[in-house]
What we know:
Helix content is 56%, strand content 0%. With 77 residues, the protein is mainly alpha-helical. It has one domain (4-69). The radius of gyration is 11 Å and the shape is globular. The chain starts with a helix and ends in an 8-residue tail after the last helix.
Amino acid sequence: MDNLWKRLKPAVKTKILADKDKYPYLVKDVKDQLKKHTFWTDLPIGTCRQVVNFSHESVYEVPLLDFMYGDLFIKKA
Length: 77
């Protein structure tokens, strides 16, 4: 199975990479964590939160199950 970075939805990946110049270390860390893990539930909570932050205006817009399992961010296999 591919890592989470490879399975990330293109729109989410684009939003993360769009801030590469502004937040180089944060983007690198998020990208590295997504490359390191295969399952959303294995990510550190901080990485999950950062993916949400890069993807949405407010964490309150993300349904709890999507935050917990990443379905909103990860392509279906």
